[in-house]
Every structure is written in C-alpha cells, then in structure tokens.
Amino acid sequence: MHAATSPSPGPSAGAAPLRVGLIGYGLAGSVFHAPLIAATDGLALDTVVTSNPERQAQARAEHGDGLRTVAGPDELFDAAGRLDLVVIASPNRTHVPLAHRALEAGLPVVVDKPLAATAAEADALADLADARGLLLSAFQNRRWDNDFRTLHALLGQGALGEVRRFESRFERWRPRPKGGWRESGDPAELGGLLYDLGSHVVDQALALFGPAATVYAEADIRRPGAEADDDTFLAVTHTSGVRSHLWVSATAAELGPRFRVLGSDGAYVKYGLDPQEAALRAGERPVPGEPWGVEPESAWGTLGALDAVRPVPTEDGDYPAYYAAVARALREGTPPPVTAREAAATLRVLEAARHSAAESRTVRVTG
Question: Can you tell me the distance from the alpha carbon of 280 to that of 39, in angstroms, rounded to the nearest whole number?
C-alpha cells in the first residue's frame, strides 16, 4: 500500500503569498481550482485566463476586483515574471502544450487530470520539469475524498486482512448527453468517461495497491446521440496480486456501492459520493479551522462480514490538503502531492484499457 499525502502546514510567518495564474474558468477552474487556491494559506490567485467576458466578470466577482483577468494564455506568459505557479484547468487537448509553455517559461505547473493523452507525453513533461528543477503535479483531488481517506486508514490498520478485490464505482444517471468537449467523439479532445472519471478510479487503485500488471476493459456508448464512451468497466490485476474492478458510467439508473473492498478478514462497503464537489458547486467554500467535507453518520460505510458488520466513521474529506501540499513543495522543496510520474502510470493503464476494449483482449501494462 502506498502512503497518502498528509495536509501540510502553512508558510512561514511573514512570507509573501505565492502568486497563481489559472488558465481556464469553466467547471474545473471556477468550482475546484480557484476556490481551493483562494482557501490555501500562502497562495494568492493573481490572474485568470478566460476569453469569455461573463466568466471574467464572474471571476472578479468571486475573487475581488483586484484579480487580473486576461483573454488568452499569451497574455499570461508575457507577464510570467509576476507569477510563482500556473494551474491549467482548460480543455484536455490543451494540457500538454500549455504545460510545456509554462515549464519553458520557468514556472511550476499544476495540471488538471488527465495530465496528457499518453504516458509518453506525461513522461516527456516530467523530464522537462526535472531538467528545469520545476514542480509538475497532476490534480488528482479524489485522493482526498472522504471514503478514500477512510479506506486508506483501514488498510493501514490491517482491518480487512489481505485485500483480494477492490471494487470502485463512479456512477451517475445522466440518460441524455449534455454535449460539449467532454462528450466529444473527436480523439483529440480526450472526451468520454475512460479519461474523465476513469482517471480518478485508476489513480486511486494504483495509489492503494501499487502498479498494474494487466488490464481488461469494456467501453460502450449507450446513450442515443452520444459520441464517446459513457459506460465503461476495467479489471486491473496489480503486481501485488490485488484485483481492482472499476466502473465509470453515466447510465446507471441504480447506483452501486462507491467502494466494496473484500479482504481475508472482512469487507468494507461504502455508498454515496464524497460531499465536497456538491458543496463547491453550491458555492460553499472551505475555511481553515471550520468543518469541511463532513458527512452524516447515516452515510458511513460498514466493516465486517455478513451479519457481523459495524459502521465505520468516515474521515472528513480534505481537498484543501492538495494545494496546501503544493504550497509546501514550492517553499520547502518537498515532493508534490501527486507526481507527473504517477500521472503517467495512470495513463499507461488508461491506454491499455482503450486497446483492450477495442480488441476484446487482456493487455499487459508496460513501462
């Protein structure tokens, strides 16, 4: 089992905040990145890049009139000297070229998942970051989901014995496509659930149980008018011997358990999604020292076997820990909370899954 990143302390007293440029102010930028950056001691949102005048106005309304808004990344990079970090939350097809430009400009980078289209591209970016001595991290916020943190703690305690199978579902009921690049059938857009929600469930499985040896996948387009996969299953065999069965779907009229983890001494079963995304979408914001990511006792998972099960208190979710760890890495040189090499490992599994689904065969993961 791999160690999870712990929340990090704030900057030393009197240190000036690190200035952050955010590229993209759609769902990822406005709901996830900007609020979490603003809530992080030692970081200050300086510049937002969006060509949409309404989103520019929204950003200033949400983060103050002193926020600088620009229409394109050229304006951001022309003033690279005013920034200490660039966060890329623009469409998937732009991640690699923008990350490359940021690194070439001497700026540390956080990139929303997926970091790239391929593991080779991710490794090339990691090589560039290493050569420049710059931070490059992928935003895998769901390592700080409440259920993942709880399961990680249970595994550390040996509460399940030897884990044999890890089942993880990220399912939704969206019977009609919403459109947009996330559901585009253009391969350049990296649309579809395999690279969207699949990035999360695969990253979690690898973080918990180590590298993948083989992958079998089924990727289907179920909804009328849909262009990209919307109902996908992956079976991952880890080199540790654990088998991960992972589902991502937009067509689930009845949601299965978020986690069902089977071990030699018992099972952990947890329903429901971490509450942090819903809270952020509703306009709630994390405040240091105040409760955040808390769910009611009625939503707790259970641990045990058959009728001998007990509820397990769910640890609070902690998305703010990601950017706290980024701030610490920039100031103190500690490892980033999620590395580019870890992102490349996830992409190797996703690539293998794509080939498996297309060819109806099990694929060995290399690299």
Answer: 12
Q: Which of 140-154, 189-203, 292-306 has the lowest mean pLDDT?
A: 189-203
Tell me the two tokens of residue 339.
């590395």
Q: Tokens standing for 174? A: 């969206």
Mean local confidence (pLDDT), 122-141: 98
Q: What is the average pLDDT value for the chain, to the nearest integer?
A: 93
The CA distance from 32 to 200, in Å, is 15
CA quadruple 167, 171, 177, 178: dihedral, nearest 10: -120
Tokens describing residue 233: 């299953």
> What's the CA gap between 19 and 21, in Å, rounded?
7
Cβ atoms of residues 83 and 107 within 8 Å:
yes
Give the torsion through C-alpha atoms of 71, 72, 77, 78, to 10 deg.
-60
Position 264: which residue type?
S
Structure token digits, residue 70: 């620009």
- Residue 15's pLDDT is 80
List of residues 6+ apart from 131 with CB closer than 8 A: none
Q: Specify the pTM.
A: 0.93
- Which letter does DSSP use for residue 94 in this model? G
The pLDDT tens digits of the residues spanning 157-206 come to 999 999 999 999 999 999 988 877 677 777 777 778 999 999 999 999 99
DSSP 148-206: HHHHHHHHHTTTTSSEEEEEEEEE-B--S---SGGG---GGGT-STTTTHHHHHHHHHH
Give 232-243 pLDDT, tens digit per residue: 999 999 999 999
**Residue 169 to residue 233: CA distance in whole angstroms:** 9
